User: Fold these one by one.
Assistant:
Number 1:
Amino acid sequence: MLRVVKPKNARSKRAMEAREPKEVEDARTCIFVRGTHVGELAGAAMKELMALKRPHAISFSKKNTVRPFEDASALEFWAQKNDASMFVVGQSTKKRPDGLTLVRTFDGRVLDMCELGVDRFVSMDAFKTPKATPGHKPMMHFASELFDAHPRFVQLKSLLMDLFNGEEIGQIHLAGLEHVISVTLAPTPPSLASASADEDETGPLPAVHIRAYTLQLRKSGVRTPRAELVPMGPALDLSLRRHRMADPEVWKLATRRPKMRKQEVEKGVGRKQKNMEVDEMGDLRGRVHVAKQDLSRLQTRKMKGLKKGREGASGSDGEGEDEDEDKDGGKEAGEEPARKRRKTG
Amino acid sequence: MDVSDILAAQAEKHKAIAVEKEIPLDVDAGFLAVTDPNPIEKESYDENVEEYLQSTARDGVQVLLSALFSLPTTSSPDGPLAQLPPPTTTLPRAKPLPKPKPPTKWEKFARAKGIQKTRKDKKEWDEEKQEWVNRWGWKGKNKEEETQWLSEVPANADVDYDPTKKARDERKARVAKNERQHLQNLARAQASGAERKQRKADIDRTLATTRVSTASMGKYDKKLDGEKKLREVKRKFEPTEVSADVEKKNNLALLAKIGNVPAKRSKHEGNDAAINVRKAVRFASKGEGGVALARRAEGKAARGKAGRRK
């Protein structure tokens, strides 16, 4: 267990503050852990996945006795120590050869896990093509209907998106889009296609193909360019093995969204804001609607000549009052913003 | 006027970037992700896997690019930046949401009074020097009185009156006061919440116990001003006539408390079952239990097989 320490100087204070929970989080740091025996295939796959994940990747190059599905305490300790929230654990055993386990944590505790077996792996070096710059944000492509329907694949999609692309960014330079990570499933077996999604242990699950391509933009005559893909590597064929779903309670906590900040609400990001706007000086301006005043009831100066006759009011009187009303209404509308301005400025 | 030519030309232009799919793709521009919900075509997949994967990916990326290139942009020194919408996919957070800081005593007061926060600059304009000087800290303006070469002395001052020392002491006292208030705020923040409520409840309970812990059970104790009467447990008399259901429930609850547990047993085996399973097992296994019965049955079967093999 880590001690709760008070920072002794400004630098360590900044470092500790950087680890505190933030409203909008940075990309997840991923630790690549080698198990007791990794094997060639899984080891190479880990190395290349790490190349894609860089710079948010930490390599644990020594062997570690770690079995995520039996005891995850080591992972939780590393997560806290390194401020990392994701793991890729490589482990090859006789029963489960060439396994990669994706582990995700929440608040220093393991949230969910998914074990993948590497069936086939082609390295980046096998493709003699230009590679993407490390640190550039990849685009993600998922293809299969199971990514929306089957709980195992929903989890896998979520994990892979978190691994490669889980950072929220406000804007992006479109010329900087360099590569695509494509995740495609093998054709859905009939047992899965017919059965409902909740029976996930019935038949074999389709294989997962992960491919990385570089993007080439060609002119198309319109604003949107035509996309061409060039295989960049690595290419992985994976099969799903053991998994652990997130606890629904913890999942609920983990997916809680921050309340919207004042500025965003003013901009109208959340629900639609009526009668409020921010002008170019940054002041919040409001428009107030006042119900139309009933001026016919207004008591004016009492004179004998203006008294209502016993037979009812004459038509001409009514018209005159209407005109007054309009004039007053107009004046008030003109005054309203001025009053508001004094308050906000 | 015939516009079919123009329309055809326009369609021709868009042909290069058009993607036709049965089910429209699901684009999450915030995460630069696209999901293709169309089922995988088995024939073309079997024919050439790599080619099929690449063509599917290209179609998906093309749709994503059209979404990205239609986003509003802002200019920057590096080129136009596309403004991404907030992502639609919910990914779990790595850490829980930050807790809001508990307000300080001043902040509470200011909010109640509607006092706006004004941020002071670190620098202040010095009229004499005609330059910006620090408000505090190195060569700070708050040390001006201590460092000036001439200072006023009141007419009735002591002989050993030192205006420099007085100004310095006052400044140091202000710093100390601020530090004290800071610590008080921290203590208040820590004490608030569930912990504090628990402590309060404990104290109340202890006080109530001590008040009745004298020989006269507190009857002849000195009362303080404004001391409230102890709230006692009110006796409650049940009506003598209650419905049969309620009476049964009460009695069963009483029985369960005593240790005779008819309620639990009835949960395990239905009352309306024709056979008392427990009793039957006990009888069949001659009182040894279900496990022994199963073992014996297994042993018999194994022996039978072995005999057949001969």
Number 2:
Amino acid sequence: MNAPLILFYFFEAAAAIAAVALLFARSVFYGALLVIVILLALAGLYVLAFAEFVAVTQILVYAGGILVVIIFGIMLTSRLSGKPLVVEHTLPVSGGLVGLAFFGALVYAIALQTFPTSESVAKTSTTFDATQTVGIALMSDYVLPFETTGILLLMALIGAAVMASDNASKKI
Amino acid sequence: MAPVHHFLYLGAFLFSTGLIVIITKRNTIMVLLGLELMLNASNLNLVAFNSLHPGSLQGQMFALFVIVVAVCEAAVGLAIVLRVYRQYRTSVPDHVNELNQ
Amino acid sequence: MTPLDTLQAHSSFFVICLGGALALPLLSFLLCFYVSEKYSWATSVLAPFLMMASTVCAAVVLYQAWNHPAFTWQRVWFSIADHTFTAGIHVNNASALMLFVVTGVSFLVHVYSIGYMAGDTALRRYFAMLGFFTFSMLGIVVSDNLLLIFVFWELVGFSSYMLIGHWNESPAAAEASKRAFIINRVGDAGFLIGLMLVWTHGHTFNIEALRALPLDPAWMTAASLCIFCGVVGKSAQFPLFTWLPDAMEGPTPVSALIHAATMVTAGVFLLGRAHFLFTPAALNVVAITGAITALLGAFAALSQHDIKKVLAYSTMSQLGLMVAAMGAGAPEAALLHLFTHAFFKACLFLSAGSIIHALHQAQHQSHVNFDVQDIRLLGGLRKKLPFTFIMFVVSGSALAGLPLFSGFLSKDAILAALVHWSNTGDAWHWVVLLVVALVSFVTVLYTFRLVWTIFNGEEKSTASLVVSEPPVVMRAPMAVLALASVWIWFSWNPFSFSGWIYNHIGAAKDFHGGFVSMASAAWVLLALAVAYASRGRKLDSRLLAQGFYVDLFSRKAIEQPTLQLADLTHRADKKWIDGFLHATAYAQVIVANLTGWFDRAIVDGFVDGAAGLAKSIGSFTRSFQGGKIQLYIFWAAFAIIIFIIWTLL
């Protein structure tokens, strides 16, 4: 049991526990915080899977960006309503059953597969600088999707700003 | 290095959790959170599979683009939630059923 | 997309003028709609100006196309499978002349409308629709293709609907416009069936191409009769004529336009255009229909009291004459009458409009109210409206067919054609000839009855009114049209119809009309004498016994039968035809009730069972889509799980 493996199971356990807690969370705010925990744990797992750049992006964009926005949203909605947001549950039994069945089906499907053990490849992959390669790839092979996502981001930004703006009757 | 299976089990678990959250939570923001969870679960799979092919970057790239799209989705989704909330004074998705009347 | 046929011997200037004549009314329509509410007065300058430009273009077209080979221009319109539909323009002598007449009359009506419609709230719509009306009619005139003609035919129907119902706040006008539209649709249904027949047997809609094809006579009889249905509707022939008198609810300039240039003439023009399609059997039907219409219209005009209705019935009867001439195989005569009729009937309507306008103005000032269109209340207006009087007499003389006027020439042409036709054909052709002669006699009677009642005698309701002539924008078009009602424009010799128009609008036949023209002149003058003798007599009262021979003659031999016939035709119109319509309506109601019962008892019983089943299924499936999004997701996930299990196992 080496250190990376301990870290790996620690992060896995953290994500799984936070996910279970999310299922039973009755406050949206706590739910958002639990999602942050999951996202950070996932970022740790990404590092362990030799995807440092994705991990950093995960932390920056998700934990630092989206979740902050979502928490702002939660606070805004609770400010508008004036009472804390308590989440009711609908279809708890059937929803849970469907989720469990889904999980079971996926686990069964995964267990059927055999993958090459990553021990052999792990040693070679530590030798190259992932971030630099990702940067070069983004600017060469993946430049078209990169630019396209830039446009998509711009559109989402403008759209979100327009939709969330207060003067609803103003002509756009 | 942990076996890929364990990444996939966690991905499946998070995905199912996200699904349950989407189905059971009576709050639009929670539903959005469940959606993020599902996206992350798929991202985890992408990154895990990429670790099997050290020479290539396709899985990571895909994960990056998924993150970016998730950003857009979250921003627009949240804006819609806010607007709906202002309009209908509710964040329960089923209460917005004007077209059903 | 290459031009299938190029222009021969026509300069590009000609093409530009032709395009201008066609496009300017459309431009007027568009511009008038886009002028803002604030500047709606501008339409009354803009629209007549554009129409004037169009008229000038049409005049150039007429000058250049006259006695030249027909101008044709074709393009592929669209193709379905391997059938190609072409659209194109065909300008020969008749259509060039028609182009000029339509734009000219329309221009004069535009100018007249400036005065007549001044102060109307919907001026923009009015002028826009006038432009559109003219454009649609021009489309009919120049199209080389039956399908294209049908398209413009419908547009004419639509724009007439808009114009007749221009004062849509009046229920009568709204009713009349609906009526005109629907009755026209009835005829158009026949037209459409005719088009299908033509397509099935000729595989082309192009008129010139159809002319060259050998077609099966039996089917062509059917097809041409179906096309004639459209003509019956549009040109107000028996039995689809009731919309025409009702259409008098529209503004008077519109009536002038409908009657003179744009609408009812379309049917006659189409008959002339597609004359070769008509087999002898079909032509007989056409001739009889025309004669019946002419007779009904003439006698109905005698018994009317509304000035515009008299004119409307007279149009109907004149159209009947044209159609009868078409049926007699003399399209040139019919077209000649069409052109002369366009001018004098427009002038008559504009004069009537001028009377109405002047009296309305006078009523407005002195706050007296009576129906200005009722000729029983009018009289002695000669002194108060001298200009209108002259115009009315000139155009009325043309209508009555007095020598030296245009109507004499064209009516003569029709009579000569009919005489020729009767001499060569079956015995019953004489009946048609006699009917037409009788109609031309009655025409004189009702025209001069109108003139004498309105302008001579003592003033009745108008005695106390201060009446002034309408403004010059209204008088000038009347003057132009009255001038155009004189013989000289149509033939140098006032007693011979074979002038420059008649000889060149078709394969004109010379009927040696010398005897006919003398006879008809004498006949018309006799009628005039009768009309003079019976002047001032109310037609619905008994004539006094005293009087000279003509008086007695007219009373015994003409007036009483005439009156009875007038009464009869009036009743025929009001009771039998309307009664027939009512009877069909009642029959429909009864049938509807029967089917309703059947529907409720049997069909519904069956349907209820099916509906109950559907309802239970529906309420089951409905539970899946109650507007609960999360339930949808649940079911979607459920389905995916089933799918996954299915694939895994």
